[in-house]
Each structure stands twice: as structure tokens, then as C-alpha cells.
Specification:
The chain is of the alpha/beta class. About 50% of the residues lie in helices and about 15% in strands. The protein has a five-stranded parallel β-sheet with strand order 2-3-1-4-8, with helices on both faces. Zinc ion (ZN) binds next to loops.
Length: about 210
């Protein structure tokens, strides 16, 4: 099954996609993670992407599409995959349609206030990639899972968060309509609640279409 996750930054796409990946035993493909890895490894794609990411802007479509095409051709994608953070523009969705058939577009609908609090309080582990909210960490700056140092992503700083939400509204939100027209959209309305509760809503939305 080929699944796309839609939703604003901080909606929980990554968290839910990771769980679903384990449950369905298909890979989670996060373009954001791929770019962060490319930046760490200082590849040409990484160096190109960094200035856009730091500003909360989208990386140009050609760059992202080329990277995703290459990834989807790998053997582990042949039984399905979960796309997390791609497509993010109508042009990307159209490019995806030329190489893949999307079975379900899972839209995670979360109010803006919740998003802003989540992103500005988000900390990520430099070693295992785990993400946490400051409210659950107390005074600790270490990863509860592996003990490594936690950091705030540059693009989670307040000014950039605002820009990412604006970019989402303008460029990515139209995809809700795009997939609805194709008859594959399913929405999970996550208004607060725990990760487990929200994941249950995501699963229900998936099962409604799958
Ligand atoms: P979030 O969903 O929390 O905003 P991601 O990790 O998905 O973060 O993406 C971080 C950044 O990487 C984006 O703000 C953007 O600059 C870049 N990026 C990731 N995926 C795409 C994409 N499909 N198209 C363009 N830029 C992307
Ligand atoms: Zn960790």
C-alpha cells in the first residue's frame, strides 16, 4: 500500500508514520529526514537544501522530486511505503502521480495553536532521531531513549515556525483538495489528546480507505 501523509508541520506526521511503518512493515520516507541527513553528510543536495530549510522555505520541486524518485526505485519500496513530508506542492503531487499510484492520503488536521506550541517546544535527539516536547523532559537535556544530547532544530525557532505555517497554507494545503478529488483522502481530526489517542484516529482514517 502506498500512503501519503498530509498535514501542517508539527501535526505528528513523523511520529505516526514511524509507528505505522513498524505495523505495516513498509518503509517511512521522510524528505525532511533525507535532507537533514544530506546536510550532515554535506552532499551537494544537502548543501543546496540547507539555505531553504533554515529559512522555513521549501526546497525547489526539481531537487525534491529527483531525490524521491531515486528512493522509490529502491527494492524496499516495492511492497509499499509511507511518504512523510512529500508531496508538499501540487507540482510535486503531479510528478509523484507519474511514477506511483497513491492508495491513501492521510490528512492530519490539527489547529494552529497546537502546532505552534508543539513546534516551539520540540526537541530532537542528535543520535536516535527521537522527538520530545519540553513539557515532558523537565530539566533534562538528554534523550530519554538513548541518553544522547537533545537539540532544537533551527527551523523550530519561532520566526521560522511562523513562516513554515504560512508556506504550508499557501503551497501544501491545496493538496487536501487534490487528493479529495482523486477519492483517496481520509482525514484524522486531532484536537489535542495523547499520541496514542491520535494514532488511533489516524489508524481509523486509514482503515476507512484501505
Ligand atoms: P516539518 O514537517 O516538521 O516541517 P520536515 O522535516 O518534513 O519538517 O521538513 C523540514 C524542511 O525540509 C521543510 O521546511 C523544507 O524546507 C524541507 N522539505 C522537506 N520536504 C520537502 C518537500 N517535499 N518539498 C520541499 N521542501 C521540503
Ligand atoms: Zn536518542
Amino acid at each position: 500500500m502506498n500512503i501519503v501523509f498530509l498535514g501542517p508541520p508539527g501535526a505528528g506526521k513523523g511520529t505516526h508514520a514511524q509507528r505505522l511503518m513498524k505495523e505495516l512493515n513498509i518503509p517511512q520516507i521522510s524528505t525532511g529526514d533525507m535532507f537533514r541527513r544530506a546536510i550532515k553528510e554535506q552532499t551537494p543536495t544537502g548543501l543546496d537544501a540547507k539555505r531553504y530549510m533554515d529559512a522555513g522555505e521549501l526546497v525547489p520541486d526539481e531537487v525534491v522530486v529527483a531525490m524521491v524518485k531515486e528512493r522509490l526505485a529502491e527494492p524496499d519500496c516495492q511492497n509499499g511505503y509511507i511518504l512523510d513530508g512529500f508531496p508538499r506542492t501540487v507540482a510535486q503531487a503531479e510528478a509523484l502521480d507519474t511514477i506511483a499510484h497513491i492508495d491513501v492520503a492521510l490528512n492530519i488536521d490539527v489547529p494552529d495553536e497546537i502546532i505552534i506550541d508543539r513546534l516551539s517546544g520540540r526537541r530532537v535527539c542528535t543520535a536516535c532521531g527521537g522527538t520530545y516536547h519540553v513539557s515532558m523532559l523537565g530539566a533534562s537535556t538528554k534523550c530519554p531513549a538513548c541518553g544522547a544530547e537533545l537539540i532544537q532544530r533551527d527551523d523550530d525557532k519561532p520566526a521560522t515556525v511562523k513562516n513554515r505555517l504560512d508556506v504550508y497554507q499557501e503551497k501544501t494545503a491545496p493538496l487536501i483538495n487534490y487528493y479529495e478529488k482523486k477519492g483517496v483522502l481520509s482525514t484524522a481530526k486531532c484536537v489535542g489528546g495523547t499520541v496514542d489517542e491520535n494514532y488511533a484516529l489516524v489508524k481509523a482514517a486509514l482503515n476507512a480507505k484501505a
